[in-house]
Amino acid sequence: MEGSSKTLLQVKNLSKKYLIKKQLLKKEFFYAVDNVSFYINQNETVGLVGESGSGKSTIGKLILKLIKKDEGEILFKGKDIYSFSRKEEKIFRKETSIVFQDPRTSLNPRMKIFQILEEPLIVHGFPKKERIKKVKKTIVDAGLDETFLDRYPSELSGGQRQRVAIARAIILEPDLIVADEPTSALDVSVQLQIINLINRLKTEKNISFLFISHDLNVVGLLSERIVVLYKGKIMEQGDGKKIIKNPLHPYTKLLIESLPPDHPSKRKDLEHIPETFREEIPGGCKFYSRCPIAQEICKKEPSYKKIDNREVYCHLV
Ligand code: SF4
To answer: 165 CB under 6 A from ligand 1?
Structure first.
């Protein structure tokens, strides 16, 4: 999918592969991310959804240069992130940020909340007076108050810790935040609070989010556009509301069926999607082994079709 003048981040034919077998002249690779293209506009939330092992967290790390790509391009504000000068690299680090799944492990247990929030400001050379001012303002922006600054992460609830992690992610006023399963370690009621917080910050601070989750219901609550991944490949992407209301790809349909939105208590894990136990065909559709409607043609890889303002990768749609 091509972006426009409003595009903040453009991912083009991105791949990440790992060597799994090496014999004399032959090498075999596993593609964790396979020829993926999508974009994120300014002040937009894009949901990246898929089961564990679908490559969604790998994409988040590739975008922030936490791991190296193998093929493709990642453009931030129109420039290839691998062609940055030192100065541009530093600006990129300031303008992008990440929130991890579990704040118990992402926050240093030996540091008080004040120090945790102050650290990125020290790295980027903010003077002491400004650091104090920013830390005090940001903790309030994240829905807590100044009394939390004197506490350790272990003294906070899961939801409060995730608010601190979000405060740390926004303190440098980034343009893009990768939120990697930020709600999946939290209770359902706390999940909603964090989703509301992310929505508020997006509007108030003009931040774009790549929201990574295995839960299509959660993704549907805050994403303008959704990208559905399966085994490193995009199955369907486009308008979030349309995808939730009228999924076109057989995999997206199964995801929706497995998560009845009106009965959260009956939610099933994505792993419960029925297995059809058909053998995987190298070079064929990635969903072939589990697809309930697969046919002979599916042994060849589908190219994308543009339908109803969406991209769908399926021969039979
Ligand atoms: Fe199923 Fe075939 Fe479509 Fe793949 S291309 S999702 S196997 S119908």
So the answer is: no
